[in-house]
Task: structure prediction
Amino acid sequence: MFKPSNARQWLHRLFVCFAWRAMWFSVCVGGCATHANALQIQRIDTDVFVSGDILANDDLKLRAEFDAAPVKRLILVNSRGGHLNASLNIARWLTTQPITTLVVGPCLSACSLIFMAGKERMYATGYEPRLTVIGIHGPSLPLTGQLLPERAAEMLAFYKERMGDKYDARLLHTALYDMKDATGFVLVREITRNQAKDRITLHCPTAQTPRWQCTEYPRADAYSLGLVTASETVSLQLPDSMRPRMP
Result:
């Protein structure tokens, strides 16, 4: 029988396991199927919170929210990515705005493009530190998962522009091209709240690759790579609808 403390630890590990398994997704090219995890947008004063998967025409939805009233911060909460064209449209347009972008929980695939559009970019609280991660990989077709390296050049150019003199050509090439399937990622975790062993940047060529077989980049973190503009984590209160829940 579990003791109460052991039961809490077991439930916590179960939640982390489910959360990591659920978040693998990809940059899709062409039509992404509509599903239950479609994009949610919620405003609190000058903060706009966005959660879910990015579908075609979501760039129009987000621009309409910005047109409705001033926005100072765009908070990306638990997004697995989504439609490449819509995400690049959002990202390129956001670079013309004096906006701060924040990551809460997983920001994977196409979500990382939108995050990189911020003039200031930081991690924020709201999810477990080890689940607060930026994931970068190359594009693929929806449903089949066929990799499309010919479209990766557009993404590579955008990352290079936004990272500036911190751009790591070798690591970004690995992230976008060295994938065995659509679930391969370079994963860059939050800095401040994680212990050193838990904030090591990893390249896992598939979601099924055991942790010990992923390539480690111990000297590369989100700040040294130019993903974030400050290493400190921002304290943040999430809307109730976007707070993490046990599966």
Summary: The chain has a mean pLDDT of 88. Residues 4-241 form a domain with the 2-enoyl-CoA Hydratase; Chain A, domain 1 fold (CATH 3.90.226.10).
